[in-house]
Design brief:
With 74 residues, this protein is an all-alpha fold. It has a domain at 23-52. Helix content is 65%, strand content 0%. The protein has three helices and no strands. It has helices at residues 3-38, 44-47, 66-73. It is elongated. It starts with a helix and ends with a helix.
Length: 74
């Protein structure tokens, strides 16, 4: 292959790579928007974590034990 072909190939690869990254990023942003509108998860409380990140602060979400999950299933 000559130099011009390699440069063209490099341009096409960069374009498609950026296109794929663009699609993945916007699909992720849309999924966050969709979950926030449905009320599945409140993402605003996670933004408060940046300001209140001390060891003595309360957890954002409570965790269930594995035994609690098994009891709910049975």
């Amino acid at each position: 292959m000559d130099y011009e072909t390699l440069v063209n190939l490099q341009g096409y690869v960069k374009f498609f790579l950026i296109l794929i990254i663009f699609i993945v990023f916007y699909s992720y942003a849309y999924s966050i928007y969709k979950r926030d509108k449905k009320g599945e998860r409140d993402f605003e409380k996670y933004s408060k974590l940046v300001l209140d990140d001390s060891i003595s602060s309360n957890p954002l979400e409570s965790r269930e034990n594995k035994s609690d999950k098994l009891d709910k299933e049975n």
